[in-house]
Write a structure and sequence with these properties.
By secondary structure, the protein is an alpha/beta fold. The protein contains 13 helices and twelve strands. The longest helix is centred in the middle third of the chain and has 32 residues.
Length: 402
């Protein structure tokens, strides 16, 4: 019987934990590594620290069966995966320090024949940077380990299914590294595994999200134009999409999350002269959030003039997209926080969160009853069935009422 490889997963967040649990469900022994003690303790109890459908049951199962454990420090394994954040610094310059710190953490445990795979979204050339760092610290390993890049393509709220079924682009530092990585992903991915080189795989991930950002920017720009023209943008887009070759997305409060709101800047920072359209799309989507904020402020100030008191504003939805709890780079959260900082009276509703260190959360029913202005910032499914009092001012920036 073939011996299954042992695995170390560095980073147990929204991508790392579901991936580790899925791998473990295939009978591979996985050691998850995270820098936060509470994350390690939670997982070792068979529980989860994030919200993702079906993940809690899977983690409980694989921990109970001893196929998954969490630690603060890595151990020797056959395969190492790195799924840590790659934010940007000031001026939207990518910050790969988390990736390099993860590499430094695993380097002492590497043995000849090990396979190291970077899954974190990264600037082009990061996989080669990893290679240089490992060989600098462990020169005896040069030519004796395998290094590859394989970005995830998943939708929060459906991560487990998409990790398993979506195609993957896999690029190694050489052909044998690519093949080693493909052989590994076959354990838990049924989608097609497409071989390429590391540079191309890195760019593929960035371009996928830059393309989506561009499509959203078009929709958001249309919403601003239609507002000025007195046109219902949702009805207009629905009619335009009747064309057999047109598929316009729906506009929203902006763009958030750890991918679309971040990844295009990785291209812009490396290729500033060549990425004018990509940069403009980012700026358009960021502007849409500020436009939403100004619309709310103006409505609240108008209410105060008419009623001689401050309006109570219910900010409906704080996550970066519908039906999840993820607040990373969320334009809705930015709007709510900006209103509070500007001394507006707000009640913040996020039905997927009981509490948050970022902002105070209010119960949905209480917010609707108490508010003068109800502002829909995220089109959570539960919002679409709400009964709204007729005496409230409603601002819908995400199509809840359509």
């Amino acid at each position: 019987m073939e011996k299954k490889p042992s695995v170390v997963m560095v980073g147990l967040g929204y991508i790392g934990l579901p991936t580790a649990a899925l791998i473990a469900s295939r009978g591979l022994h996985v050691t998850g590594v995270d820098v936060h003690q509470h994350v390690v303790d939670t997982i070792n109890k068979g529980q989860i620290h994030i919200v993702e459908p079906d993940l809690d049951g899977l983690v409980h199962h694989v921990v109970h069966k001893s196929f998954l454990k969490a630690t603060l420090t890595p151990e020797t394994a056959d395969v190492y995966l790195i799924a840590v954040p790659t934010p940007f610094k000031d001026n939207y310059v990518p910050d790969v320090s988390y990736v390099l710190a993860a590499v430094s953490k695993i380097t002492p445990t590497l043995e000849k024949g090990a396979l190291v795979i970077l899954e974190s979204t990264s600037p082009v050339g990061t996989t080669r940077l990893i290679e240089k760092q490992i060989y600098k610290d462990r020169p005896e390993l040069e030519g004796h380990i395998f290094i590859a890049y394989c970005p995830e393509r998943v939708l929060p709220g459906n991560i487990l299914y998409e990790l398993k079924h979506n195609d993957r682009a896999i690029g190694g530092i050489n052909k044998i590294s690519t093949q080693k990585a493909i052989d590994f992903y076959k354990y838990f991915v049924v989608g097609t595994l497409h071989p390429t080189n590391a540079k191309t795989a890195e760019m593929v991930k960035l371009v996928e999200n830059a393309s989506r950002d561009n499509q959203i920017a078009f929709a958001n720009e249309l919403s601003i134009i239609c507002d000025k023209a007195g046109i219902n943008v949702w009805d207009m887009i629905a009619l335009a999409n009747k064309h057999p070759r047109v598929n316009i997305l729906n506009p929203g409060t902006g763009v958030g999350g750890h991918c679309i709101a971040v990844d295009p800047w990785f291209i812009v920072s490396e290729f500033p002269e060549e990425s004018g359209l990509i940069k403009k799309s980012r700026e358009t989507n960021n502007y849409k959030t500020q436009w939403v904020l100004e619309k709310i402020k103006n409505k609240a100030l108008g209410f105060k003039v008419e009623n001689s008191r401050d309006a109570v504003i219910a900010c409906m939805g704080l996550a970066f997209k519908p039906d999840i709890d993820d607040l990373r780079e969320s334009p809705a959260l930015l709007v709510a926080q900006s209103l509070k900082e500007a001394s507006f009276t707000t009640l913040n509703v996020e039905p997927n969160l009981h509490e948050s260190h970022a902002i105070e959360i209010t119960d949905t029913a209480h917010a609707i009853k108490s508010a003068d202005i109800i502002v829909f910032l995220v089109s959570h499914s539960g919002f679409k069935s709400l009964e709204l009092p007729e005496d409230k001012i409603i601002l819908d920036f995400c199509g809840v009422l359509n």
